[in-house]
Design brief:
Four copies of one chain form a homotetramer. Chain A is an alpha/beta fold and 310 residues long. Helix content of chain A is 49%, strand content 11%.
Chain lengths: 310, 310, 310, 310
């Protein structure tokens, strides 16, 4: 098992948390999946992460999640690493999805803690230990305390990183102290990958040593985020300043329309639909934007496209 | 649809949130299910609620949940109403379970809000509206904010109660102000049932007009809880004082061993195993008690049985 | 010290958490204090609690708090016990106020935990131990987790109750499980008084053994709350049902206007001003209601007075 | 008023949140204040911030806070800007302290939101508007949601920044998304200063445009933090990597001893006492470290001094 890990090469760069293209609440938009995969590959991303929070995973049936894994892996066809979210409150369902992912030749798995009962740190360690032992692919931890009600504390991450099949972590806590503690505590383990979720923080943590971003906005404008990552990796601070400003404007224009908790996903899906890439349906209990919000997205998109051309 | 509801007669009394007897993490203890059902029926309960929080539902695969519905309904065989929890983040999976329940001739469904994304009140209303329209059986709301991160506010309950297929609510918030607001706001709708989860509060809210309790301890000592409910319904305050004291001692002795978040479920399952009713396995990520904790449960049980005989 | 405590006779009944009549943000309405004290005494309350949450204490300067203690004690003039809130993040200021209270012949002190840093249970024990040792009057604990970010756990209450100068607790958590655990854990200490804050829960917990209520609505309608307490103490369940309904209507009509966090205090103060008892000013950062809200209070008051006459 | 602001020149760099040297719970260590001020000035800091969270302000009496203002301003004697925390739940007390600060020729004021009642955003705006109008010195906002239960949202900051007397913000939320939104929303107002509290994040946000850090560790090792700030301001990424590592080791060694909420302050005070700078007393309810913890601090200090020499 140990040797297997050593052969897994660490990822870096932008790995978009792919939205799930849907034709209806629990019906996959398979053409949308293909279009979106092409859009992302053309945009220069380093991998694709399906079935995360941005993918509305918890609102999808296990069957639809399975279908999405199959369709995405087929569409990607080995051109890029595919990371598959297996987060679920039932370990059986997580392992079922893990096996589907392996069968479809995905490259890695990603799991947030169970999110109904909040686990303590010792239980969290045991959970990931048990999960990783049964996972047929390398596993990334996914820290997402606003949804799971628990942080995977730095000490727990450190201990988990010593298990052969755990290869990295994605942090969506937005907590800068936490992320810098991770960078510090993991500094002697260069094979362990640290990705950040919130796009607003990506450049600054890559400057400090992070491996990349799992940034939602990269669904829409993959090149912009790849360019910002590259500038941060190259420590080109002038370029960062210019591109960071554009990234902030994307979020400001698109993620707060309607002021729902789900505005961010709705904004992204509506924008992708307006660009002809995929359908804008959401899984229940979220609803697609109504016409007034759609028009706001359209206006925002036009302004952003002008901005991004410069 | 409207007429169907009118024919559903309101429940009252003690409806235990049944623990899920397991032989292993995702393997049902079918003999345990039968034994436990007989134990509960013999104890005089008014119904059985499966697949709630005490049932470790979120840690069970959909397949095991389905199996539990079938086994329980078969074991009960129409002697009592069976209420089936369909809480899930995916509405498709909730409806799948709802249909299994209807097919097995269960009597009603129970659903807490989706628990990954926390919904606002308008979204919560729409969620329950959509769910209840597609449910083949009457639906109970399940307020469980510590796990779902949202309260179903009294105004939302009032609006939802006007839908034809929503017949009651179980509140596990432990919030006494909330529960008394529900009693007040629903006072002109005598068909809407209000049950409380925490057993410590049961007698006091039944005195004030609640319909009963979905009390975890009734898995172990159903008669005790039925007696306390009956005393409260009969407004026999001396009897209440005597039995409430016993209920408090059960919790004090059994629910805090080991000081895990899951101590309450572990204590109940270990005690039921020691009484020969079912196996003490828990679904991952929870673990069965080790020997020192089991011995504490055994000592507690012996003291409680002496107490309850008097 | 121990003997001193034994001579303090336990309180019971309704002890209103008095609003602080103000002429401006930090200027006491001394005529209002006198009127309000007479209104409360005429209403049959068992004591008066000044400088609690309803009294906007944290928004008042130490100097104004001192003035309020002096004016209230003078106005009450020994006719009733006066309880003085000394809650502060600085123990020096708490003790200063405690000494003012003793000098003015107040009867007891009330203190919630410090509320900037949230203390752990051992620190909380030490805090109250140190405070009570230096307090010249008996001390009540005040559990108020929504403001202080910490519960005084039942085990901590039990340990603190063994100190000679700690004589009771007021619980404003609204947590019914917590309150019933207190009733259980303190059942062998009949001298320790347990009061509940939220008026919606008062009757139900008095039925189960609580000593009374520190209910905000009693500022406005003291007789109503005294009658409800008396009915609960006499276990007259028909009377309780009738009066509980009226109490719920008071809150429904008055506490939600404008939907601020401070609506409850604003509603009470505006109603008292409309009844000619005291001025309706609030301490900054809260603002007095504007005309549209005042008119809503006036309409509500008229309906309530009709209701209460029946 | 507007013109006055224009003459206030924006601060940048390291402004330590000074611990409050105490001889006992509410007794100032005036020699310690002088020693510490010299230590900080020698360390090259850009200003000194007294009466923040690290200063245990809420646990100090108003009288002691006043004494600290006088002693610090006298000790600094105009060599550096002094920023004075006036955070209090009572606006009268805040303004009293603000006037003491002005009289002592301090340079600016700092205020977190009131922390007993949590205010909504409109109330927060009004609070700061009223406060700043009456403040005789420029005012910094202080975002500290873990203690105050409320974020000062970016839109509220933007609106407040347009008031003449509000000149900057210190953010101690640790939320990287929030801080980058502030950098973005305030980018067209170069006179508005943005400081970060947590030292772990300081270099990364200064790289992205922040003005400096109000970093607790700078009490102990001011040069280290000044050097790190200078490296970040100069965008010297190799130097940053080297110094950031040292900063992380300081925190790892000193801030978690004993695992109290207050370990960070206790570690700093004990270390300063061991270096002979000031006494290690804390204000109640916090306690000074016992001998075993003191010895751990001593060992940590020796290792850190070796590390910092290299």
């Amino acid at each position: 098992m140990e040797s297997q890990t050593k052969t897994y090469s660490k990822l870096s760069g932008i790995i978009p948390p792919m939205i799930t293209p849907l034709l209806g609440s629990d019906k996959l938009d398979t053409i949308g999946v293909r279009n979106l995969v092409e859009h992302l590959i053309k945009g220069g991303v380093s991998g694709i992460f399906i079935l995360g929070t941005t993918g509305e995973t918890q609102h999808l049936s296990i069957k639809l999640r399975e279908e999405l894994i199959r369709e995405t892996c087929q569409a990607v066809d080995g051109r890029l690493p595919v990371l598959v979210g297996i987060t679920d409150t039932s370990m059986s369902e997580s392992l079922y999805l893990a096996n589907v992912a392996a069968e479809c030749k995905a490259n890695a798995l990603v799991a947030a803690p169970p999110y109904y009962f909040a686990l303590g740190q010792p239980e969290l360690y045991e959970y990931y230990q048990a999960l990783s032992e049964k996972c047929p692919l390398p596993l990334y931890l996914y820290n997402m305390p606003s949804h799971t009600k628990v942080m995977i504390e730095p000490d727990t991450v450190k201990r988990l990183s010593e298990l052969p099949n755990i290869v990295g972590l994605k942090d969506s806590s937005a907590n800068g102290v936490y992320f810098h503690k991770l960078l510090h505590i993991m500094k002697d383990d260069p094979d362990f990958a640290l990705f950040v979720g919130p796009e607003e923080m990506m450049a600054s943590v890559v400057l400090m040593g992070a491996d990349g971003g799992v940034t939602g906005g990269a669904n829409l404008y993959p090149e912009l985020f790849v360019d910002l990552y590259n500038a941060a990796a190259a420590k080109d601070l002038n370029k960062i300043a210019e591109l960071q400003e554009k990234v902030m404007q994307v979020g400001e224009a698109l993620y707060g329309i309607g002021r729902f908790g789900s505005s961010y996903i709705k904004g992204l899906k509506t924008a992708l639909a307006l660009k002809g890439i995929c359908c804008d349906s959401l899984a229940q209990p979220f609803n697609t934007f109504q016409m007034p919000e759609k028009q706001k997205v359209q206006v925002a998109l036009m302004q952003l496209e002008t901005l991004l051309k410069n």
